[in-house]
Amino acid sequence: MDRTPAFGPPCGLHTGAAPAMPILRNPAAPPLSVAMSVYNAGPYVRQAIDSILNQTFGDFELLIVDDGSTDESPAIILDAAARDPRIRPILRENRGLVASLNQMLHLARAPWVARMDADDLCAPTRFARQMDFLAQNPDHGIIGTECATIGPDGAPLARPPIVRPTTHAGLIDALELRPTLNHNAVIYARALVLNAGGYRPAFAHAEDYDLWLRLSQVTRMANLADPLVSYRVYPGQVSDRHLITQAYNAGVAWLCHRARLDGWRDPVGNDSCLPQVDELDGIFGAGAAAYVRRRVIERALYAPDALTREAWDMLLTHAHDNPGDGRLWRLAGRILRAGQPLRAGRLSAALIGA
């Protein structure tokens, strides 16, 4: 059935100079494929590529899809590929991250795939330590690492650490609402991901979370406790621009996960778009819409601009159903201070049932 998407677009560490292993020109498939999608990452992509090429584990291929960049990214990628034969550049028109990820999954020659973002940095021992873990734990199909945070200039940021579970049991317990796996820091079994259906376009901006939920039902997962990837934080990055879409799609992904655990056929399957919020109860049962609204509002409580712009009707319904939630009254105050008195008044009215 054709559906209009609920939201979104249509259907620190400083690694320094580390010596790399000699390039292994093995005609056979390497043990590891690295998958990097690039879109207008000119200021950062050269550093990201160098942090991969400088790994102490050097037997890999590096697939880089340039997803229609309009900046200097393609030139940087081609220059790096001319210098290192392990790089396989793919330059094409813009199709989005999910299409890029699925394309690299199908092009990869290795049994293991390492994800890497074009604006982040890897510690020199990242691949060696992750591949060593997988060799010692053959029942695990995915291994992540902790991440540090860096600013636009690469300097470490003083932020409270996010401590993710390291064991499979801990990750299963955290799957619903707490941080689990860093998408930019995982290595996973290519065959498992392909057999699970790859990345699903309907879950754009939460495509990794949807994948972790599906993989959790077929393999064991873990994290290394050390921060072996540096996640770069800067204004305007994708996670900030699509906060509401990400939260909504993650909520629906959880509903699909629970449905599969209960023995249902996945209600979304290979649909290109997710159902609207007012369709959820009819698909997943009573309370599904309220659950997703709550996840969206709680994820965006401190982003009033996003709530009033993209999730206004959802916020009013949630407020009407939860008049005793003091956080919503405080949110009304933040909306007022943001220069939107009419919306602050409407939210207050919803909270008192007017």
Question: How do the strands and helices of this protein lay out in sequence?
Answer:
Elements: E1 32-38, H1 45-53, E2 60-67, H2 73-83, E3 87-92, H3 97-107, E4 112-115, E5 121-122, H4 126-136, E6 140-150, H5 168-174, E7 187-189, H6 190-195, H7 207-215, E8 220-232, H8 238-241, H9 243-261, H10 280-284, H11 288-299, H12 304-310, H13 312-321, H14 326-337, H15 341-351
Parallel strand pairs: 1-2, 1-4, 2-3, 6-8
Antiparallel strand pairs: 4-7, 5-8, 6-7
Helix pairs in contact: 7-9, 9-11, 11-13, 13-15, 14-15
Explain what this protein looks like in three dimensions:
There is one protein chain. The chain is an alpha/beta fold and 354 residues long. It folds into two domains: 32-234, Spore Coat Polysaccharide Biosynthesis Protein SpsA, Chain A (Alpha-Beta Complex); 242-351, no CATH class. Helices cover 41% and strands 15% of the residues. The chain is built from 15 helices and eight strands. It has helices spanning 45-53, 73-83, 97-107, 126-136, 168-174, 190-195, 207-215, 238-241, 243-261, 280-284, 288-299, 304-310, 312-321, 326-337, 341-351; strands spanning 32-38, 60-67, 87-92, 112-115, 121-122, 140-150, 187-189, 220-232. Helix 7 (207-215) packs parallel to helix 9 (243-261), helix 13 packs parallel to helix 15 and helix 14 packs antiparallel against helix 15 (341-351). It is globular and about 70 Å long. The two termini are 37 Å apart. Residues 1-26 have low confidence and may be disordered. Keywords: Glycosyltransferase, Transferase.
